[in-house]
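Handoff note, outgoing to incoming analyst
You'll be picking up this chain. Sequence as last confirmed:
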Amino acid sequence: MQCPYLVQLKGICKSFPGVRALNNVDFDLKPGEVHVLIGENGAGKSTLMKILSGNYMQDSGEIILGGKAVTMDSPKKAEESGISIIHQEFNLVPQLTVEQNIFLGHEPRCKMKLFPNRAVSRSDAGKLLERVGLDVGLDERVEDLGVAQKQLVELAKALSLDARVLIMDEPTAALSSREIESLFGIIRQLTGEGVGIIYISHRLGEVHEIGDRVTVLRDGQGVGTMNVADVVLDELVRMMVGRDLSEMFVRSRVPAESGRKIVLKAERLCVDGLLDDISLEVREGEIVGLAGLVGSGRTEFAKAVFGVLPVSDGHIELFGERVTRSNPRNLIRMGVGLVPEDRKDEGIIQILSVQENITMASLGRLFPSGIVKSSIERRTTQKYVDMLRIMTDSLGKQVCFLSGGNQQKVVVGKWLCSELRLIIFDEPTRGVDVGAKAEIHRIMDDLVRQGVSILMISSDLPEVLGMSDRIYVVRSGRTVREFARDEASQEEIIRHAMGGESCAS
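Most recent structure output, in case you need it:
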């Protein structure tokens, strides 16, 4: 009798020093289904998938493929067994081209197997890029691509392996709504061909949209597996966090005041080749949302304000003064911080500890004499670890060993520690679970009630609508619309982001 499952994980246990990551977890996947795996950061989702993909060996339990127990002792063994994983943190070589990354380690070869077959490689890579809807050159270096484009290169790379089991870890975290729709189309095509997909996501709305079954992990244990058709959102939240979440977007609304001080003013801002006329204002004690498709100029605008990209035309005013010497060091001294979209390369230093990352931007404020007192540094770090519920067994633990969501919380903690007047959040809850998302929203609300101003860039339109006092929409490096909170809707934002009338003047 043929086994009804592509893969089964039975009684999986895994421990790390001081942490019980998985405790007797069961999971299975059928051909042609999307099995969604959800849970808070640190629940064990990524660890379970790293065991299946050969990156970790389980302490106990077994992996069964097609009805036969196997030892998955390396990523190569997993690939040979038809298992491919798209990691939440990109597994690409930045200095290599798109084509080279897609076929890295399994390049098409000529008949004698001695040399790569460039003609076949280019033809197949082009077809894969077309399949995932990515319009970039095969010879472009991956380091020059945006986050969303890198995600699609990862997908093309996984598809090149002809996997029967495809693991997607937060695949839509950096994608726009249009790109997500395209990705879901690819997923449906793959499942129609009998491919089984394990789909890890913190976006609970995606469970019903793309999933067939859902399994919930909490604190390294399986809480339950259900058919998606039988599940309601509130039940999933309770299973994930062990408590009810009455509100997703926590805001203490205050009446709009035209007399509030302007904290950030950008007028006709241009960056050569990237921005072509963005104008907006952020006032004291408000959250301003910046919406638009990926590649519209949102992140580039944040980097221009923070002094990372040079302004070619237009100007920026901060706290009533025109900025003439724009670089991150000066901006931090002025009271401006940036939570970047790409936390791995721009938000944290992975080889440093949680404590070193959280306090690195605040050492001058904490220790004006230049003498660092470790007791104060530990106490300060612990405050933000507790506030953000950063899951770590030690303040001295290197950030590279934390889950992606906990790394994001470390970035947020670094800027909260700096006691700034303006914080730019670029995708603040990307890769963060539902409980931590509500906590970050609550912290943002606390900040604006204390007079801090926030510019929030997000691809999550419910987040933009739920948290913002005003919303600007950008398209092709230009401001195309400003909405008051009560005027905006998802439909209107999308319409202007994709081709609405410009009204920036």
